Amino acid sequence: MQLNDVIRRVKHSLERAFPEQRLYLRSETNETRFIRLTPFTQLVAWTGSSVFVAWSIIATAFILMDSIGSGNIREQAKREQALYEMRLNELSVERDARAEEALMAQERFNMALEQISKMQVTLLDSEDHRKEMEKGIEVIQTTLRRTMKERDGARSDAELLTAQLAGDAEIPGAKANDPDAEITVDFLTAALVNTAVERDTMANMAKKSEEYVAELELERKLLEEKNDRIFSQLEDAVSLSLEPLDKMFAAAGLPTDSILKSVRSGYSGQGGPLTPLTFSTRGEEPDADSLRANGILERMDRVNLYRIAAQKAPFALPIKSAFRYTSGFGPRWGRMHEGTDFAASYGTPIYATADGIVTHAGWLAGYGRLVKIQHEFGIETRYAHQAKLRVKVGQRVSRGDHIGDMGNSGRSTGTHLHYEVLLGGKPVNPMTYIKAANDVF
Length: 441
Description:
The chain is of the alpha+beta class. It folds into three domains: 2-76, no CATH class; 105-312; 316-440, Distorted Sandwich (Glucose Permease (Domain IIA)), CATH 2.70.70. It is built from six helices and 14 strands. The protein has helices at 2-17, 39-165, 179-251, 256-266, 288-312, 430-440; strands at residues 21-26, 32-37, 324-327, 330-332, 335-337, 340-343, 349-351, 356-364, 368-374, 379-389, 396-397, 402-406, 417-423, 426-428. The chain starts with a helix and ends with a helix.
């Protein structure tokens, strides 16, 4: 009974809100028909119309908001891309300038080495000439002393003979006014005159030799000062080249001594401009200039070893086109993210970051299409989620070689490159290497 009352009340309320309506339709034959619109029918029509209008309003609002938001995101992405490309261009110009400066420094170093070699040859010639002159002076002085001794003896004999001829003394076995004695005196007198002339000549030669030795000594000092200035400039240039490389490898956490030892053992051929200088063939110890030049050459050799090691370590970026970082190394969503993500357009080329050998090129769960490259010093790099692979297992690649295209394969939420660096089998932050290289280059 109560249910009937409720139904009756509801119908009564509907009739008051939506009274029964009739819709008359007249045909061309003047026939009139009508359609009854009950309160329930009117309620259904009104409810449906309201729902349709509300849905239209909400859908239109969502479309407008999505359009406005997408437009802002696209504009922001374009601005970020333009800023990034501008930064890339600036870095490229700066890198080219640094490369040109390094090339010019290398040329200046080679020219300086050539000048050093010439100056060392000149110094050796001067040293040999000086030693020869010293020996000549010693011979002249010895001859002069012997001549002076002979002159004094001849003078004593002449005085004795003169005294004997004058009757002051007697010559054993000779008579006064002996013709042979007079001949002997004349001979001794001529010998004394010749000895005096030869003595004066030797004295003049000794004086000229001493003056020439003094000139050679002055020239040697000037050459030493010039060598010192050149060596100082070379040492400064080598220091400017070596210190940033030391910092780069230290910042990357790499053991520099063991790395350089490994590179040196692999590149052990000798010869050319970096061979240590040796100027003495007499078993003598190298002089200070030779030791200093060899020190510079050793440091230049260290720079070259660093250059080779830098080519074998992943200091480069795997992407050369415009991109943005979407996720870094570290905890993410409750687990460890062991790499760095670079997002760019589908098919963007991916490049090897260092020389090495491809150890994997295929599908791997979670990684999708993956390339693994084994480098020197126990370093491995991984390039995941690729659309297409460009290398094969066992292939040797160099830094900058095209190894694949960016894609969305494997467990991925969008087109990007997942880039990993492993040292001794343990993942490390790839940005450590990239930032260390950016600080130097």
